[in-house]
Structures are given as C-alpha cells and as structure tokens.
C-alpha cells in the first residue's frame, strides 16, 4: 500500500488562518450552514465546471462541507485530502435482480405526512439509494448526476467497519474487550480513551471532553486536512486523541454511566487494531472485508502520517456499500458466503444493554428505544434490525427478519454544532428535519418491502 504524505508548512497554515477562524472558532451552525439550507440544483451543477472553474465555483478545504460545494466534495474526497487505497475482490459478491421501475410513486407516512418515495429522495439531497431483498436488487436510484461507478463518502458509517474489525480480533482471542485500551496503546495511559475499556470505547461510553475550540468533528477534520487547522491545533490523528480530558459529574453520566457520541473512541480503537496486527486500518479492511466481496476499489482519507480516519474516512461506490451491508446481513443469519465471519458479527451485534444511556446521550429524533454496540445502532424493533449512520445523510439499514438491506448516500446540509462533552448534548427536535431521520428511511424501506413482497 502506498500512502501519499506531505508536511504542511507554516506558510500554508498562515495563508489559511482566516479560514481556520471561520471553521474552528465560530459556531459550527454558522461555519457549515452559511449560505442557506437547500442549495439550488443550478448552483451545484456549476461547481468545479470549466478549465479552470470560476473562483467562486471552486471547492476548497474551507468550503467543502457546506452547500453548494459539498455535493461535489463528497464524490471527490480523494481530490480534497490524502487517501489510502482499499483493494476489491477478484470475484465480487453477485447482486442479482433488476431495479424496479414502478416504485418511485410508493408512499409512506412520516411525521403525519404522506410522502412519495421519489420526493423523499429528492428532498433529502440523496445521491444514491439502493434496496436489496433476499440479496437481490429491487430498487436503485442515482440522482443529481451521481454515477454508479463513482465513490462517495461514508462519513461515520466508517465507524461500523472499525467496530466489525474489532469484533474479528475479539473472536480470534487477540483483543480483550474488557481490557483497558491502554494495554494495547501505552501512549494513551492516563487518557480517557486509554483508561476506558475496549468495549466502552466501542460502545461510546467514555466520559471524555474536548476543548471548546476543537469539537470532536472539526478537530478531527482539521487533523486529517479535510478543513484547515489552526496553527496550534493537532495536525495528526494521534495528536488529536491527546487533546481530550476526563470528565465527571453529569459528563460521566452519574451512576448510570454515559453515552457520548464522538470521533475519538473509534480512532483510539483503530490504533489498538494496528498495534495488535502490525497492519494499517486500510490493510485490515482490504484483507478481512473488501477483498472478499467488493467489485471496485474503495479508499479512505488519511492524515499527513498516513493514519487512516477510522471514524469517518471510508469512500466507495453505492453497490459496494450494499455488498458490505448484505454480507453483514448474511453473516448475522449464519451465512459466511458473503465473506464475513458469522461469529464476529454475533460478537459485534450482541444485544446492547445501554438503552437508557443512549436515550440520554442521543441527539437525533426517531431513535427511541435504540441501543448501541460496536459502532452499530440497534433498532430493537423485534426484527433484529441494525443501522450504520453518517453525517450529511449517509445511512445503512439491515432488517434480518425481512431479509432487507438498504444504503443511502446523500449530501444533506448539516451545520449543527457538536457537543464537546456529554453535558453539552442537546436534543435536535427539529420538525423540519423529520425526513432526515432514521425513522423516515426505515419507513421508506419498509414501504418498498411491502410493494415487492405482494
């Protein structure tokens, strides 16, 4: 594996100080959402067009997370920051079936409204949407110029890949989930991630706080180079893990413990996986996952040291994301033919016992009764359904009982500020974003399931 690395000089940093201030000092609700909520199709179509594109239509690290630039950036992440490759299979998992042509008018109810499927996809800024039933493609759509062979960001759905890799090492006896993570990464001794157990990290149950100027999203983005970083901010993932502090009181969740969703825990777990195996995260994904079922190469964003962003750097085609989700579904049913160990999936998806903690720490509507384990959301709907979720509308939904697998790639604006500790978590009960919820995607998927099961 070859990783392109460079050192960011002080001159480069100084030239971007004004952008760093805009992105890392001002509230995130301003830095990511300025310019309005829903970008016009015309504005998006003009981005990065021409030789060269006009200055105001060029995507940069300063504007790539807000409309109208984000849609282009999410499809061209390897042109925005350094990346490492992930190799595909010589014999990919077959996806049979023909996408239905008469399902666009399928309707479902959400927040008291009846929604057409085609309108749902348009109104949630969908780039690609695919539904598999019993392993066969029954619905597949590409919107706003997105191409079937084009990679797209996974954002935090990447965490679910990291959680599955960890379960594989647990299965092999190489990783003790009840051990302090610092047992595997001594550099994190005394650090909240290192002092927590491996399983606490995997389940987002670490009482940790971040500096106010370096929230867990933008602080990491700056370390990887996705956005400009301030001169005194960490510019590697390993250094990003060291800026945190332990919290107590309400931040620690009291006697019931804490559930606090943030990027540090999966990055710390990935550090342990590298130490245990002597291999990079990208190598592990290639050997244990991608080379067993994927049709195209994937890639992941890395920092200047070549360290992969294990909490959000994955990029792949829509169909290969569906192959990953389908392989997980099959493994959950005891079928190893998809290339994933059923025993590892059983470890990753053991019933979570943290519903009360999750309810306190979850900010998104439509997830009542959920649990969380190994970076997978457990829906607790009686069907054994699980979800992977990523910012800006990336979603995977797997319903084992209904043999249903769904993937959604999107470019949905999201400028909400992320809390720097559990005490700062606030519910996001915004009725205007009901369509963006996991509940809406599940309702759409179940409507398709009903239509194809008649």
What does this structure look like?
There is one protein chain. With 454 residues, the chain is an alpha+beta fold. Among the domains are: 10-81, no CATH class; 92-152 and 317-452, Beta-lactamase, CATH 3.40.710. Helix content is 31%, strand content 14%. It is built from 17 helices and 15 strands. A 7-stranded antiparallel β-sheet has the order 5-4-15-14-13-12-11, with helices on both faces. It has a 4-stranded antiparallel β-sheet with strand order 1-9-10-6. A two-stranded antiparallel ribbon has the order 2-3. A hairpin with a 2-residue loop joins strand 4 (126-133) and strand 5 (136-142). Helix 7 crosses helix 15. The longest helix is centred in the C-terminal third of the chain and has 15 residues, at 318-332. The protein is globular and about 60 Å long. The N and C termini lie far apart (48 Å). The relative contact order is 0.18. Residues 1-36 have low confidence and may be disordered.
Summarize the structure.
InterPro entries: Beta-lactam-related (IPR001466), Beta-lactam/transpept-like (IPR012338), Diverse_Enzym_Activities (IPR050789). The chain has 454 residues and is α+β, with helices and mostly antiparallel strands. It has helices spanning 10-15, 17-24, 28-31, 41-46, 70-75, 117-123, 158-171, 192-195, 198-202, 218-224, 237-240, 264-277, 281-293, 318-332, 342-348, 355-361, 438-452; strands at 83-86, 107-110, 113-116, 126-133, 136-142, 152-153, 208-209, 245-246, 298-301, 314-316, 371-373, 376-378, 386-390, 394-399, 404-410.
